[in-house]
Design brief:
Number of helices: 4
Helix content: 55-70%
Strand content: 5-15%
């Protein structure tokens, strides 16, 4: 869906919102619990990809985790 979001961004200046789907969130959490990937890096890249595609607003189950990580970075 990021390709569609990017095409919309090219055609409008209106604010665009995207939803980071619960299945992707759950998949990243489960893979991180197994030690297969770095949760913070993977989740951050997923959210950055949505933003790069043109989203002004991102709805995500990772909001609290990301806010905590961001706070740790700027502290």
């Amino acid at each position: 869906y990021l390709d569609i979001l990017a095409r919309l961004r090219e055609r409008t200046t209106l604010p665009l919102a995207a939803y980071h789907v619960s299945g992707e969130y759950a998949m990243v959490k489960a893979a991180a619990r197994q030690g297969w990937l770095d949760e913070r890096a993977c989740m951050t890249e997923s959210l950055l990809a949505i933003a790069r595609a043109g989203a002004d607003i991102i709805f995500t189950y990772a909001a609290l985790d990301y806010a905590r990580w961001w706070r740790e970075e700027v502290a």
